[in-house]
Amino acid sequence: MSDTAPRLVDFVRENLLPAGSTVELDEQTPLLETGILDSLKTAILLNYIRDELGVFVSPVLIDAKNFANVASVAAMVDGLLVEA
Amino acid sequence: MRTPDMFISGIGVHLPETVSVDWAVADGLYHRLDADLHGWTGVAVAGDLPAPEMALHAAQEAVKRSGVDPTDINLLLYADSWHQGPDGWQPQYYLQRHLVGGEALAVEIKHGCSGMFSSLELASSYLRADPDRKAALLVMADNFGTPLMDRWRPGPGFVVGDAAAALVVTKEPGFAQLLSVCTATVPEAEEMHRAGEPLFPPGATVGRTVDFTARSVAFRTNALRRGGTQALFKVQQQTMAVAQRCLDEAGIGLAEVTRVAFMNSSREIVEQRGTGALGLPFELSTWDFGRTVGHLGASDQLVSFDHLLDTGQLRPGDHVLMAGMGPGVTLACAVVKVLRIP
Q1: How far apart are alpha carbons B150 and B24 in whole angstroms?
Q2: What is this structure's pTM?
Q3: Interchain contact, A37 vs B233, CB within 8 Å
Q4: Which of B193, B225, B232 best tests the A interface by mutation, with the highest count of A CBs <10 A?
């Protein structure tokens, strides 16, 4: 079973949640409705995915559906890993 | 927009002396915490030299280096972000009077910090439209040292410096080739640079100081109230999409990018949203230079390009990727190939 989702949860929790955030992050937590992803944090997340998870996410895949929550990001990443 | 038939024949820069961040911190104008966090070391300060005067210096240099007769210039575009002089007057007329004369179409381009890119697109189209048109003069200039602008705290993570830069774009070969230039806007983020303030009366007419930090906070608050930060997310998506499109249209891959001249920003922004997002090494960026002069409005990329040329950091055959962002939110890129060192 893929460990992508738990790795992403850990990364988002440690690096992207605003200081003092009370959000209880899990795989289903909305990333856009809660404001976790803005322009800079989207870039930081994409750079982590490329450098640590080993896949480049093309701009055509960067949409609200694929980045709705950690589960959807993980599914996209795992799909790209299979294609690679 | 593919533009391999457009060439840069002359470049000119007016970059004033810099003031150090350490001085600003000691004087209480800037916080040490911000200096350490964002990495700025200095800011170019023009004092009371008007922006149109800086623009004229840069334009004269660019025209002289191009070898183009000023009266052969068919188009003058003057891009700026901040007030240039008395209201009801426009600064391009100053350059017509003192340099290019009255035959050229001369227009002020109010396109914020992405004005250089939009000027390149407009000039390319204008020159192509008539076989008799030969050259365009593109000028960018701002002096932010006025009331209503705190150059040390204009917005989140950046400081502003003063400068002017100019290009002569020709259809005849020059020292560099403009391979492509691309622009996109994220209209969903239109309020980002004005949120929390009324459209009328305009802030400058009632003496309101520019505060992009407060506007950014208001925009985020409004966005969360309306359903989320999708617009900010899309800004980064478009940043990457425009860069990819510009490289594709230039016909080069990432491996062929020699240097990257981003808008002068904090190290984190350049590293994460710039080179990192594109998958390029941070060392290719011009951040080491940009951090010493501040964010220079629409002049950032050209001043950095000129610096790379002047300091022997470019060779014939090198490709320079320029990238910027402005209100709109507008994302823009250009790819320039160096043919010879001017």
Answers
A1: 12
A2: 0.95
A3: yes
A4: B232
Judge: A40–B273 Cβ closer than 8 Å, yes or no: yes
Contact A35 B268 (CB under 8 A): no
Min Cα–Cα distance to chain A from B23, Å: 29
CA B79-B160-B111 angle, 5° bins = 25
Q: Give mean pLDDT in consecutive 10-residue pieces for chain A, a chain of 84 residues.
A: 91 89 90 94 94 93 96 96 86
Q: Give the ipTM of the model, two decimals please.
A: 0.94
Min distance A59 CA to chain B CA atoms (Å):
5
Nearest to B79 by CA among B295, B299, B294: B299
Q: What residues have CB less than 8 Å from B36, skipping those under 6 apart?
A: none
Question: Which option is the CATH number for A4-15+27-83: 3.30.110.40, 3.90.550.10, 2.60.120.560, 1.10.1200.10?
Answer: 1.10.1200.10
Domains of chain B with bracketed CATH: 2-174 (3.40.47.10), 180-338 (3.40.47.10)
Residues B99-143 pLDDT 10s: 999 999 999 999 999 999 999 999 999 999 999 999 999 999 999
